[in-house]
Amino acid sequence: MARIVLKFGGTSVADLDRIKNVARHVKREVDAGHEVAVVVSAMSGKTNELVGWVQGAPKVVGANSPFYDAREYDAVVASGEQVTSGLLAITLQAMDINARSWQGWQIPIRTDNAHGAARILEIDGSDIIKRMGEGQVAVISGFQGLGPDNRIATLGRGGSDTSAVAIAAAVKADRCDIYTDVDGVYTTDPRIVPQARRLKKIAFEEMLEMASLGAKVLQVRSVELAMVHKVRTFVRSSFEDPDAPGMGDFLNPPGTLICDEDEIVEQEVVTGIAYAKDEAQISLRRLADRPGVSAAIFGPLAESHINVDMIVQNISEDGSKTDMTFTVPSGDVDKAIKVLGENKEKIGYDVVQNESGLVKVSVIGIGMRSHAGVAATAFKALADKGINIKAITTSEIKISILIDGPYAELAVRTLHSCYGLDKN
Ligand code: ADP
Ligand code: ASP
Ligand code: MG
Protein backbone atom coordinates (compact mmCIF):
# COMPACT_ATOMS: atom_id res chain seq x y z
CA MET A 1 0.00 0.00 0.00
CA ALA A 2 1.21 3.48 -0.83
CA ARG A 3 0.08 7.06 -0.65
CA ILE A 4 -0.51 8.78 -3.99
CA VAL A 5 -1.50 12.31 -5.03
CA LEU A 6 -3.28 12.57 -8.41
CA LYS A 7 -3.72 15.94 -10.09
CA PHE A 8 -6.16 16.54 -12.96
CA GLY A 9 -5.90 19.66 -15.13
CA GLY A 10 -8.66 21.70 -16.74
CA THR A 11 -9.24 19.63 -19.88
CA SER A 12 -9.38 16.48 -17.74
CA VAL A 13 -12.33 17.86 -15.74
CA ALA A 14 -13.91 19.90 -18.55
CA ASP A 15 -17.41 18.39 -18.17
CA LEU A 16 -19.32 15.76 -16.20
CA ASP A 17 -18.28 12.92 -18.53
CA ARG A 18 -14.61 13.79 -18.15
CA ILE A 19 -15.08 14.01 -14.38
CA LYS A 20 -16.55 10.49 -14.46
CA ASN A 21 -13.48 9.36 -16.35
CA VAL A 22 -11.25 11.00 -13.72
CA ALA A 23 -13.21 9.17 -11.03
CA ARG A 24 -12.34 5.88 -12.77
CA HIS A 25 -8.62 6.71 -12.51
CA VAL A 26 -9.12 7.44 -8.82
CA LYS A 27 -11.08 4.22 -8.32
CA ARG A 28 -8.30 2.16 -9.90
CA GLU A 29 -5.80 3.46 -7.33
CA VAL A 30 -8.25 3.10 -4.42
CA ASP A 31 -9.04 -0.49 -5.48
CA ALA A 32 -5.31 -1.22 -5.54
CA GLY A 33 -5.32 -0.40 -1.81
CA HIS A 34 -3.55 3.00 -1.98
CA GLU A 35 -4.32 6.06 0.11
CA VAL A 36 -5.35 8.72 -2.37
CA ALA A 37 -5.56 12.51 -2.44
CA VAL A 38 -6.76 14.22 -5.62
CA VAL A 39 -6.07 17.80 -6.70
CA VAL A 40 -8.28 19.35 -9.38
CA SER A 41 -8.12 22.43 -11.59
CA ALA A 42 -11.14 24.38 -12.74
CA MET A 43 -12.93 23.20 -15.89
CA SER A 44 -10.90 24.29 -18.93
CA GLY A 45 -11.65 27.87 -19.95
CA LYS A 46 -13.29 28.63 -16.59
CA THR A 47 -10.39 30.50 -15.03
CA ASN A 48 -10.02 32.62 -18.19
CA GLU A 49 -13.70 33.46 -18.00
CA LEU A 50 -13.43 34.44 -14.33
CA VAL A 51 -10.33 36.58 -14.99
CA GLY A 52 -12.22 38.26 -17.86
CA TRP A 53 -15.09 39.13 -15.55
CA VAL A 54 -12.75 40.70 -13.03
CA GLN A 55 -11.03 42.70 -15.76
CA GLY A 56 -14.39 43.87 -17.10
CA ALA A 57 -15.75 44.90 -13.70
CA PRO A 58 -15.78 48.61 -12.81
CA LYS A 59 -12.67 50.05 -11.17
CA VAL A 60 -12.64 52.42 -8.23
CA VAL A 61 -13.29 55.91 -9.61
CA GLY A 62 -10.25 58.15 -9.22
CA ALA A 63 -7.99 55.34 -8.11
CA ASN A 64 -4.34 55.94 -9.01
CA SER A 65 -3.91 52.38 -10.10
CA PRO A 66 -5.86 50.96 -13.04
CA PHE A 67 -5.91 47.61 -11.25
CA TYR A 68 -8.53 45.89 -9.15
CA ASP A 69 -8.20 44.70 -5.57
CA ALA A 70 -6.10 41.53 -5.80
CA ARG A 71 -7.87 39.97 -2.80
CA GLU A 72 -11.19 40.20 -4.62
CA TYR A 73 -9.58 38.91 -7.83
CA ASP A 74 -8.59 35.85 -5.81
CA ALA A 75 -12.07 35.50 -4.32
CA VAL A 76 -13.48 35.32 -7.85
CA VAL A 77 -10.90 33.27 -9.74
CA ALA A 78 -10.50 30.60 -7.03
CA SER A 79 -14.15 29.64 -7.43
CA GLY A 80 -13.60 27.45 -10.52
CA GLU A 81 -11.74 24.84 -8.48
CA GLN A 82 -14.42 24.80 -5.78
CA VAL A 83 -16.92 23.59 -8.38
CA THR A 84 -14.78 20.75 -9.73
CA SER A 85 -13.68 19.45 -6.33
CA GLY A 86 -17.30 19.23 -5.21
CA LEU A 87 -18.39 17.58 -8.45
CA LEU A 88 -15.61 15.01 -8.30
CA ALA A 89 -16.44 14.17 -4.67
CA ILE A 90 -20.11 13.68 -5.64
CA THR A 91 -19.12 11.48 -8.60
CA LEU A 92 -16.82 9.34 -6.44
CA GLN A 93 -19.51 8.93 -3.79
CA ALA A 94 -21.90 7.70 -6.50
CA MET A 95 -19.30 5.03 -7.31
CA ASP A 96 -19.36 3.97 -3.69
CA ILE A 97 -16.03 5.59 -2.89
CA ASN A 98 -15.73 7.47 0.38
CA ALA A 99 -14.68 10.97 -0.72
CA ARG A 100 -14.72 14.50 0.66
CA SER A 101 -13.87 17.84 -0.98
CA TRP A 102 -11.46 20.32 0.61
CA GLN A 103 -10.88 23.99 -0.20
CA GLY A 104 -7.47 25.51 0.38
CA TRP A 105 -8.63 27.28 3.57
CA GLN A 106 -10.04 24.09 5.06
CA ILE A 107 -6.77 22.15 5.05
CA PRO A 108 -5.29 24.85 5.40
CA ILE A 109 -2.73 25.52 2.69
CA ARG A 110 -0.94 28.58 4.08
CA THR A 111 0.46 31.04 1.56
CA ASP A 112 2.23 34.38 1.60
CA ASN A 113 0.39 37.62 0.96
CA ALA A 114 1.12 37.96 -2.78
CA HIS A 115 -2.50 37.73 -3.90
CA GLY A 116 -2.77 36.49 -7.48
CA ALA A 117 0.71 34.94 -7.41
CA ALA A 118 1.00 33.59 -3.89
CA ARG A 119 3.59 31.06 -2.77
CA ILE A 120 2.75 28.15 -0.51
CA LEU A 121 4.47 28.49 2.87
CA GLU A 122 3.09 25.59 4.85
CA ILE A 123 0.50 22.83 4.63
CA ASP A 124 -0.97 21.13 7.65
CA GLY A 125 -1.51 17.65 6.24
CA SER A 126 -2.55 16.02 9.52
CA ASP A 127 -6.30 16.03 8.94
CA ILE A 128 -6.18 14.62 5.44
CA ILE A 129 -3.56 12.04 6.44
CA LYS A 130 -5.89 10.86 9.19
CA ARG A 131 -8.87 10.70 6.83
CA MET A 132 -6.88 8.95 4.13
CA GLY A 133 -5.84 6.40 6.74
CA GLU A 134 -9.54 5.79 7.36
CA GLY A 135 -10.08 5.14 3.67
CA GLN A 136 -11.42 8.53 2.63
CA VAL A 137 -10.28 10.11 -0.63
CA ALA A 138 -9.40 13.80 -0.19
CA VAL A 139 -10.49 15.86 -3.22
CA ILE A 140 -8.64 19.16 -2.97
CA SER A 141 -9.19 22.36 -4.93
CA GLY A 142 -5.93 23.29 -6.64
CA PHE A 143 -4.62 26.80 -7.30
CA GLN A 144 -5.70 28.20 -3.93
CA GLY A 145 -4.62 28.64 -0.34
CA LEU A 146 -5.12 30.90 2.63
CA GLY A 147 -3.09 34.10 2.96
CA PRO A 148 -1.81 35.63 6.22
CA ASP A 149 -4.82 37.96 6.05
CA ASN A 150 -7.08 34.87 6.27
CA ARG A 151 -8.29 35.47 2.74
CA ILE A 152 -8.22 33.14 -0.25
CA ALA A 153 -4.99 33.51 -2.21
CA THR A 154 -4.34 32.01 -5.65
CA LEU A 155 -1.01 30.65 -6.81
CA GLY A 156 -0.65 32.13 -10.31
CA ARG A 157 -1.81 30.58 -13.57
CA GLY A 158 -1.20 26.88 -13.81
CA GLY A 159 -0.90 26.79 -10.01
CA SER A 160 -2.76 23.52 -9.46
CA ASP A 161 0.42 21.66 -10.42
CA THR A 162 2.11 23.40 -7.51
CA SER A 163 -0.79 22.58 -5.17
CA ALA A 164 -0.43 18.91 -6.08
CA VAL A 165 3.33 18.67 -5.57
CA ALA A 166 3.17 20.69 -2.34
CA ILE A 167 0.45 18.42 -0.97
CA ALA A 168 2.41 15.35 -2.03
CA ALA A 169 5.40 16.70 -0.08
CA ALA A 170 3.24 17.59 2.95
CA VAL A 171 1.59 14.15 3.21
CA LYS A 172 4.86 12.38 2.29
CA ALA A 173 3.27 10.74 -0.73
CA ASP A 174 5.14 8.01 -2.55
CA ARG A 175 4.16 9.50 -5.89
CA CYS A 176 2.54 12.55 -7.47
CA ASP A 177 0.83 11.96 -10.82
CA ILE A 178 0.07 15.05 -12.90
CA TYR A 179 -2.65 13.98 -15.33
CA THR A 180 -3.11 16.22 -18.34
CA ASP A 181 -4.16 16.19 -22.01
CA VAL A 182 -0.83 14.85 -23.30
CA ASP A 183 0.71 11.55 -22.27
CA GLY A 184 3.95 12.97 -20.90
CA VAL A 185 6.63 15.60 -21.36
CA TYR A 186 7.79 15.81 -24.97
CA THR A 187 10.98 17.09 -26.57
CA THR A 188 8.90 20.14 -27.48
CA ASP A 189 5.23 21.12 -27.47
CA PRO A 190 3.61 18.23 -29.40
CA ARG A 191 0.86 20.58 -30.57
CA ILE A 192 3.44 22.59 -32.53
CA VAL A 193 5.75 19.80 -33.63
CA PRO A 194 4.01 16.49 -34.33
CA GLN A 195 7.44 14.83 -34.63
CA ALA A 196 8.15 15.59 -30.96
CA ARG A 197 9.12 12.54 -28.92
CA ARG A 198 7.83 11.65 -25.51
CA LEU A 199 10.58 11.51 -22.89
CA LYS A 200 10.66 8.56 -20.52
CA LYS A 201 12.51 10.69 -17.96
CA ILE A 202 13.61 14.30 -17.68
CA ALA A 203 15.94 15.78 -15.06
CA PHE A 204 14.56 18.33 -12.58
CA GLU A 205 16.95 21.03 -13.83
CA GLU A 206 15.91 20.49 -17.44
CA MET A 207 12.21 20.49 -16.60
CA LEU A 208 12.74 23.67 -14.61
CA GLU A 209 14.30 25.36 -17.65
CA MET A 210 11.64 23.98 -20.01
CA ALA A 211 8.86 25.29 -17.77
CA SER A 212 10.54 28.67 -17.13
CA LEU A 213 11.20 29.12 -20.83
CA GLY A 214 7.61 28.54 -21.89
CA ALA A 215 6.61 24.84 -21.81
CA LYS A 216 3.42 25.22 -19.86
CA VAL A 217 2.96 21.52 -19.15
CA LEU A 218 4.05 22.15 -15.52
CA GLN A 219 4.07 25.35 -13.49
CA VAL A 220 7.68 26.33 -12.70
CA ARG A 221 7.13 26.39 -8.95
CA SER A 222 5.81 22.80 -8.97
CA VAL A 223 9.09 21.61 -10.48
CA GLU A 224 11.09 23.55 -7.87
CA LEU A 225 9.09 21.94 -5.08
CA ALA A 226 9.41 18.45 -6.59
CA MET A 227 13.17 18.98 -6.82
CA VAL A 228 13.60 20.31 -3.28
CA HIS A 229 11.32 17.77 -1.61
CA LYS A 230 12.31 14.87 -3.89
CA VAL A 231 8.71 14.18 -4.86
CA ARG A 232 8.48 11.37 -7.43
CA THR A 233 6.45 13.19 -10.05
CA PHE A 234 5.00 11.71 -13.24
CA VAL A 235 3.28 13.57 -16.09
CA ARG A 236 0.69 11.32 -17.75
CA SER A 237 -2.57 11.39 -19.69
CA SER A 238 -6.07 11.31 -18.22
CA PHE A 239 -7.48 10.46 -21.64
CA GLU A 240 -6.23 6.90 -21.77
CA ASP A 241 -8.59 4.13 -20.66
CA PRO A 242 -8.20 4.12 -16.87
CA ASP A 243 -8.31 0.33 -16.86
CA ALA A 244 -5.95 -0.34 -19.76
CA PRO A 245 -3.03 -2.69 -18.97
CA GLY A 246 -0.18 -1.00 -17.12
CA MET A 247 -2.18 2.07 -16.06
CA GLY A 248 -2.00 1.03 -12.41
CA ASP A 249 1.67 -0.01 -12.53
CA PHE A 250 3.02 1.42 -9.31
CA LEU A 251 6.74 1.67 -10.09
CA ASN A 252 6.53 2.31 -13.79
CA PRO A 253 3.33 4.09 -14.74
CA PRO A 254 2.96 5.30 -18.34
CA GLY A 255 4.19 8.88 -18.76
CA THR A 256 7.30 10.91 -18.01
CA LEU A 257 9.16 10.81 -14.71
CA ILE A 258 10.77 14.05 -13.48
CA CYS A 259 13.84 12.90 -11.60
CA ASP A 260 17.46 13.46 -10.55
CA GLU A 261 19.88 13.52 -13.44
CA ASP A 262 21.74 10.45 -12.12
CA GLU A 263 18.60 8.42 -12.79
CA ILE A 264 18.92 9.13 -16.49
CA VAL A 265 21.21 6.62 -18.11
CA GLU A 266 21.34 7.79 -21.71
CA GLN A 267 21.69 11.53 -21.51
CA GLU A 268 21.33 13.35 -24.84
CA VAL A 269 23.18 16.62 -25.41
CA VAL A 270 19.91 18.46 -26.09
CA THR A 271 16.75 17.30 -24.32
CA GLY A 272 14.15 19.75 -25.52
CA ILE A 273 13.10 22.99 -27.18
CA ALA A 274 10.80 25.52 -25.52
CA TYR A 275 9.34 28.77 -26.74
CA ALA A 276 7.73 31.79 -25.12
CA LYS A 277 5.53 34.14 -27.12
CA ASP A 278 4.70 37.77 -26.42
CA GLU A 279 8.16 39.01 -25.65
CA ALA A 280 9.01 42.65 -26.31
CA GLN A 281 12.33 44.38 -26.84
CA ILE A 282 13.13 47.84 -25.50
CA SER A 283 16.21 49.76 -26.60
CA LEU A 284 17.69 52.86 -25.00
CA ARG A 285 19.79 54.72 -27.53
CA ARG A 286 22.84 56.88 -26.85
CA LEU A 287 23.15 56.26 -23.15
CA ALA A 288 25.99 57.73 -21.15
CA ASP A 289 28.59 54.95 -20.82
CA ARG A 290 29.42 55.31 -17.13
CA PRO A 291 29.22 53.29 -13.90
CA GLY A 292 25.73 53.14 -12.41
CA VAL A 293 23.79 53.43 -15.63
CA SER A 294 22.48 49.82 -15.49
CA ALA A 295 21.39 50.32 -11.91
CA ALA A 296 19.59 53.52 -12.93
CA ILE A 297 17.67 51.62 -15.62
CA PHE A 298 16.89 48.29 -14.00
CA GLY A 299 16.39 49.49 -10.43
CA PRO A 300 13.18 51.43 -11.15
CA LEU A 301 11.93 48.65 -13.47
CA ALA A 302 12.38 46.09 -10.70
CA GLU A 303 10.63 48.34 -8.22
CA SER A 304 7.68 48.41 -10.61
CA HIS A 305 7.69 44.58 -10.70
CA ILE A 306 8.67 44.47 -14.37
CA ASN A 307 10.43 41.25 -15.18
CA VAL A 308 13.45 42.02 -17.36
CA ASP A 309 14.89 39.03 -19.19
CA MET A 310 17.58 39.26 -21.89
CA ILE A 311 19.97 42.22 -21.62
CA VAL A 312 22.40 43.28 -24.33
CA GLN A 313 24.73 46.27 -24.06
CA ASN A 314 26.74 47.43 -27.03
CA ILE A 315 30.30 48.56 -26.58
CA SER A 316 30.50 52.26 -27.31
CA GLU A 317 32.76 53.36 -30.11
CA ASP A 318 34.22 56.39 -28.39
CA GLY A 319 33.82 55.33 -24.76
CA SER A 320 31.13 57.94 -24.09
CA LYS A 321 27.80 56.70 -25.54
CA THR A 322 26.32 53.23 -25.70
CA ASP A 323 23.01 51.42 -26.46
CA MET A 324 21.19 49.09 -24.07
CA THR A 325 18.60 46.57 -25.25
CA PHE A 326 16.53 44.27 -23.06
CA THR A 327 13.34 42.22 -23.17
CA VAL A 328 10.18 42.33 -21.05
CA PRO A 329 6.82 40.53 -21.44
CA SER A 330 4.74 42.37 -24.10
CA GLY A 331 2.07 43.14 -21.50
CA ASP A 332 4.59 45.19 -19.51
CA VAL A 333 5.88 47.41 -22.34
CA ASP A 334 3.66 50.42 -21.64
CA LYS A 335 4.46 50.31 -17.96
CA ALA A 336 8.20 49.97 -18.68
CA ILE A 337 8.22 52.90 -21.13
CA LYS A 338 6.42 55.00 -18.53
CA VAL A 339 8.95 54.12 -15.83
CA LEU A 340 11.86 54.83 -18.19
CA GLY A 341 10.28 58.17 -19.12
CA GLU A 342 9.96 59.15 -15.48
CA ASN A 343 13.65 58.36 -14.96
CA LYS A 344 14.96 59.82 -18.24
CA GLU A 345 17.13 62.47 -16.66
CA LYS A 346 18.62 60.15 -14.08
CA ILE A 347 19.41 57.48 -16.68
CA GLY A 348 20.53 59.93 -19.37
CA TYR A 349 19.48 58.41 -22.70
CA ASP A 350 18.54 59.99 -25.97
CA VAL A 351 15.59 57.95 -27.29
CA VAL A 352 13.73 54.82 -26.32
CA GLN A 353 12.45 52.37 -28.94
CA ASN A 354 10.35 49.25 -28.56
CA GLU A 355 9.16 46.31 -30.56
CA SER A 356 6.50 43.81 -29.46
CA GLY A 357 5.36 40.42 -30.73
CA LEU A 358 8.74 38.72 -30.46
CA VAL A 359 9.35 35.11 -29.48
CA LYS A 360 12.08 33.51 -27.42
CA VAL A 361 13.05 29.99 -28.47
CA SER A 362 15.29 27.99 -26.17
CA VAL A 363 17.41 24.88 -26.50
CA ILE A 364 17.74 22.94 -23.23
CA GLY A 365 19.92 20.04 -22.16
CA ILE A 366 22.16 19.05 -19.28
CA GLY A 367 24.51 17.45 -21.83
CA MET A 368 25.48 20.96 -22.98
CA ARG A 369 27.68 21.29 -19.91
CA SER A 370 30.16 18.92 -21.45
CA HIS A 371 29.67 19.51 -25.19
CA ALA A 372 30.96 22.37 -27.28
CA GLY A 373 29.33 23.69 -30.43
CA VAL A 374 25.69 23.37 -29.39
CA ALA A 375 25.02 27.08 -29.85
CA ALA A 376 26.82 27.23 -33.19
CA THR A 377 24.58 24.43 -34.50
CA ALA A 378 21.48 26.45 -33.62
CA PHE A 379 22.76 29.65 -35.19
CA LYS A 380 23.65 27.88 -38.45
CA ALA A 381 20.31 26.04 -38.64
CA LEU A 382 18.37 29.29 -38.10
CA ALA A 383 20.53 31.16 -40.59
CA ASP A 384 19.89 28.47 -43.23
CA LYS A 385 16.17 29.17 -42.84
CA GLY A 386 16.72 32.94 -43.08
CA ILE A 387 15.66 33.56 -39.47
CA ASN A 388 17.27 36.67 -38.00
CA ILE A 389 18.49 36.56 -34.39
CA LYS A 390 17.78 39.66 -32.32
CA ALA A 391 19.34 38.66 -29.00
CA ILE A 392 20.96 35.64 -27.37
CA THR A 393 21.44 34.53 -23.78
CA THR A 394 23.05 31.36 -22.54
CA SER A 395 23.55 29.46 -19.32
CA GLU A 396 25.22 26.16 -18.56
CA ILE A 397 22.27 24.11 -19.77
CA LYS A 398 20.33 26.39 -22.12
CA ILE A 399 20.57 28.78 -25.05
CA SER A 400 17.78 31.30 -25.61
CA ILE A 401 17.33 33.12 -28.90
CA LEU A 402 15.03 36.06 -29.56
CA ILE A 403 13.39 36.19 -33.00
CA ASP A 404 10.47 37.81 -34.83
CA GLY A 405 7.08 36.33 -33.88
CA PRO A 406 6.04 35.02 -37.32
CA TYR A 407 9.10 32.72 -37.40
CA ALA A 408 8.31 31.01 -34.08
CA GLU A 409 7.00 27.71 -35.35
CA LEU A 410 9.60 27.43 -38.10
CA ALA A 411 12.36 28.12 -35.56
CA VAL A 412 11.05 25.54 -33.08
CA ARG A 413 10.76 22.90 -35.83
CA THR A 414 14.18 23.77 -37.22
CA LEU A 415 15.92 23.52 -33.84
CA HIS A 416 14.03 20.36 -32.98
CA SER A 417 15.27 18.58 -36.07
CA CYS A 418 18.79 20.03 -36.14
CA TYR A 419 19.54 18.31 -32.80
CA GLY A 420 18.07 15.03 -34.01
CA LEU A 421 15.07 15.18 -31.72
CA ASP A 422 12.45 14.30 -34.37
CA LYS A 423 11.00 10.84 -33.99
CA ASN A 424 11.76 8.48 -36.84
P1 ADP B 1 -3.57 21.18 -17.71
O1 ADP B 1 -4.84 21.90 -17.99
O2 ADP B 1 -3.75 19.70 -17.60
O3 ADP B 1 -2.81 21.76 -16.57
P2 ADP B 1 -1.84 22.56 -19.58
O4 ADP B 1 -2.56 23.08 -20.77
O5 ADP B 1 -1.49 23.50 -18.49
O6 ADP B 1 -2.68 21.32 -19.02
O7 ADP B 1 -0.50 21.82 -20.03
C1 ADP B 1 -0.54 20.80 -21.02
C2 ADP B 1 -0.14 21.37 -22.38
O8 ADP B 1 1.22 21.75 -22.34
C3 ADP B 1 -0.21 20.38 -23.51
O9 ADP B 1 -1.49 20.33 -24.08
C4 ADP B 1 0.86 20.87 -24.48
O10 ADP B 1 0.30 21.56 -25.59
C5 ADP B 1 1.66 21.89 -23.67
N1 ADP B 1 3.11 21.66 -23.76
C6 ADP B 1 4.03 22.62 -24.02
N2 ADP B 1 5.26 22.10 -24.07
C7 ADP B 1 5.13 20.77 -23.82
C8 ADP B 1 6.08 19.70 -23.75
N3 ADP B 1 7.39 19.89 -23.91
N4 ADP B 1 5.60 18.46 -23.48
C9 ADP B 1 4.28 18.26 -23.30
N5 ADP B 1 3.35 19.24 -23.37
C10 ADP B 1 3.76 20.49 -23.63
N1 ASP C 1 -7.31 26.92 -13.08
C1 ASP C 1 -6.05 27.58 -12.89
C2 ASP C 1 -5.56 28.17 -14.20
O1 ASP C 1 -6.21 28.01 -15.23
C3 ASP C 1 -5.00 26.71 -12.27
C4 ASP C 1 -4.58 25.51 -13.08
O2 ASP C 1 -5.26 25.12 -14.05
O3 ASP C 1 -3.55 24.93 -12.76
O4 ASP C 1 -4.55 28.80 -14.23
MG1 MG D 1 -1.56 23.44 -16.39
What key attributes describe this structure?
424 residues, alpha/beta, VC0802-like, 2 domains, 32% helix, binds aspartic acid, nucleotide-binding, aspartate kinase activity, ATP-binding
In short:
The protein has 424 residues and is α/β, with parallel strands linked by helices.
Description:
The chain has 424 residues and is of the alpha/beta class. It has two domains: 3-262, Acetylglutamate kinase-like (Carbamate kinase); 272-418, VC0802-like, CATH 3.30.2130. Helix content is 32%, strand content 25%. It is built from 13 helices and 18 strands. The protein has helices spanning 16-31, 46-56, 70-77, 79-94, 126-133, 160-170, 204-212, 220-229, 293-303, 333-342, 344-347, 374-384, 408-418; strands spanning 3-8, 35-40, 99-102, 109-111, 120-123, 137-141, 144-146, 152-154, 175-180, 201-203, 233-237, 256-259, 272-288, 311-313, 321-329, 351-364, 391-395, 398-404. Strands 3-6-2-1-9-11-12-10 form an eight-stranded mixed beta sheet, sandwiched between helices. A six-stranded antiparallel beta sheet has the order 14-15-13-16-18-17. A hairpin with a 5-residue loop joins strand 7 (144-146) and strand 8. The longest helix has 16 residues, at 16-31. The two termini are 40 Å apart. Magnesium ion (MG) is lined by residues 9, 158, 161.
